[in-house]
């Protein structure tokens, strides 16, 4: 792994600011075990990779969650998936690589660390050490989720501590937050945006095995007032004082399945796929026809082994990209890159990039 000098990192952040829109992807390290590698992605359409996830310990330490996959395994002719991304950064000067810290595994640890001044400082120092040792461009906080006003305050205090050690002229600091008002209401979003370069708005998982009824999991527009949607999440952030440019609209590269129903709004008996989801590159399911709900802005297929499956396709992503441009958002981000279609006509990452950058 190579060290990037502060001046070259500074110019990388400055040159990235000149990119019209960000098209960012998450790359989870466990995908290496499926034979996926960062080298397989099309960096003509991607300008930032969030490498997920690093872990946080109860004393505030930040460490790679899978030393073998991250730094040792043979990958794209180098060692480790993170090593591959550092190598790709040299080939693609526009590419930023950001370390995502947290995810579901850290949901119990973040509240402990964020609530304590010394642990917050440990976290910030430890994160900086990892970033500098690897030549990364910054960190992404994925705390799922600050679920009380007190935790919201602690989240802000954590961001403030990180900024002392990762100053904004040299490092990116981003955070992934759900597009759900009950969570966002716990956070002073305007205050958070003063520390953050970007909020990756997870505008998906609105419906799934945990909800009573089926629904479009990543709808841009809700069919009723009490349903969450991508546009209402964006609206909430902007009304709270978050600059539009600091919001990336999240796109899922997976679909949610509901068995025994033919569309949104129904009680379902079970879910298909793996834990209720299918990877995007396996959709539409065999023997089904893909349809687009233009009002909600969601794709779906019905029948086969998935029942009602709700997801995004190139048409819905184009509409979401146009929405981003109309609202002057920063761009799009995708969870997660290895699940995208290999065929460029079907690829959501390609569709998003093209729509963002077409006149």
From TrEMBL:
- Keyword annotations: Hydrolase
Q: Does the keyword Translocase apply?
A: no
Q: What is its EC number?
A: 3.2.1.14
Q: Which residue range or ranges hold the GH18 domain?
A: 21-359
| Recorded GO MF terms | chitin binding; endochitinase activity
Listed Gene3D superfamilies: 3.10.50.10, Glycosidases
Q: Which GO terms describe its biological process?
A: carbohydrate metabolic process; chitin catabolic process
Q: Which Pfam families match?
A: Glyco_hydro_18
- Any one GO CC term of the record: extracellular region
- InterPro entries, per database record: Chitinase_II/V-like_cat, Chitinase_insertion_sf, GH, Glyco_hydro18_cat, Glycosyl_Hydrlase_18
What sort of enzyme, by top EC class, is this? hydrolase
Matching entries from PANTHER family are given as: CHITINASE (PTHR11177)
Protein's recorded name:
chitinase
Species, as recorded: Lasiosphaeria miniovina
